[in-house]
Amino acid sequence: MNTLLFRLFLLALLASTTLLSACKDDKEDPTPDEDNEQITTLIYTLTPAGGGTPVTVQYRDLDGDGGTAPTIGTLTLAPNTTYTGTLELKDETKTPAENTTAEIQEKAEEHLFFYEPSGTNLTVTRTDKDKNNLEIGLTTRAVTGAANATGTTGTLKITLRHQPGSKNGTFTPGSTDVEVNFPTVVR
Asked: What gap in Å lies between CA 136 and CA 115, rounded to an integer?
């Protein structure tokens, strides 16, 4: 009889251990955070290669999707000019504001910027690379051609793709952290 009681005791102990381990707090075993970056502000600064006054354009959306519309500046560039470009990104929902640029640089192998001019005489080339020798796009070379026809305004779309574990130099893998269409004119 003692053996039967002992076996029942072991069985009950085993069942309670399994039940208790299934109820443990998930915070004890964190999984990597692959969430998109929170970006409320994107600042693109273009400095003429031969010297001169830098041109800065800014996107700012403090309340995220919905709510108040973002403020988006217009990018006005000189014709036939080469610029060195830098991006600065922030999360201004935090106090103090978080420098998202540093986080993107730290995880460069998970991020890729795309620059798509439309309706304006502008080409943009990424000039920085991650540890896998794939482009990032935090720094660029922008070259303008002739002035836009009679003051027409095109756009420069800047998109940041978050591509953890799948970055291959193309737009397809991952998801979008931020996408901005800046009105752009060359005159």
From this structure: 11
